[in-house]
Amino acid sequence: MRSRFALGAALVGVPLTLALLGPLLAGAPGPRAASFTPGGGHWLGTDFVGRDVWHQVLLGGRSVVLVALAATALAYLIAFPVGVVSALTRRTWLEELLMRPLDVLLAVPSLLLILLVAAAFTPGAAALALLVALVNIPDAARIVRAAAADAASRPAVEALRMQGETWWRTAVGYVGRSLARTLAADAGVRLTGVLYLVATAAFLGIGVEPDAADWAVMVDRNRTGLLVQPWAVVVPALLVVALTTGANLLVDTGLEKRKPT
Q: Is residue 151 exposed (0-12), middle (13-18) or buried (19+ Cβ within 10 Å)?
């Protein structure tokens, strides 16, 4: 278990460190060289326009990682209270008011919704995070509601109500804590999906400039030279994979530690 935790922490730590500290360590860009040139004073060669790949890697993580983390956090920030209130309320009209609009949103493909919004205006990084969070709220809220409804049906919740405990303590103190394992498992999977959406949006030029220093853009723009200078594609792709794999390893290790003996 410790080895899995260490591996997960290492996999997550490398892309996170590069995303947070990379722009501070990158320094000024050097002179451009020939496109897709391996070596030549460049650790990882050059990209499709002759820029140093290592310099682009240092600069390109923040836009992908921070947008994905912000979108995941925002999705749960809204989905959690909506799901818990829907599960615990005894007013049918309130449950319908909260959940039915999300069902309509759930019917629209995520990428299609992002493309429709992007056609109306050009979103920046913050707007892209809001969009990705928006398309993840419906299914996250349904997962929270299902888990909360199961917890709310337990005798302990009825006992809390009979004791006169406040709704807040019942919802957050008992039901909310009961959701920790479910939400932790879902968070690892959801982060992977969010990274996929953010990267796909970057491939399409949504939220970032076409030649921006961005890991997802690097994979897309440099794929034509994959056989000549693979590092321009392989390194940013591996960093994204490492982040998702490491996050799921950490979640799985944390869930194993919380298993009752």
A: buried
Neighbours of 173 (CB within 10 A): 13
Distance CA 190, CA 198 (A): 12
Total number of residues shown for the chain: 261
Average pLDDT over residues 64-92: 88
Whether the pLDDT of residue 2 is over 80: the answer is no
Apex CA 199: angle with CA 38 and CA 241, to 5°?
65
Contact 37, 50 (CB under 8 A): yes
Stated as kind and residue range, the H or E segment containing 92 is helix 92-106
DSSP summary character for residue 173: I
Give dist(CA 48, CA 223) in Å, integer. Answer: 9
Q: Mean per-residue pLDDT for 56-67?
A: 87
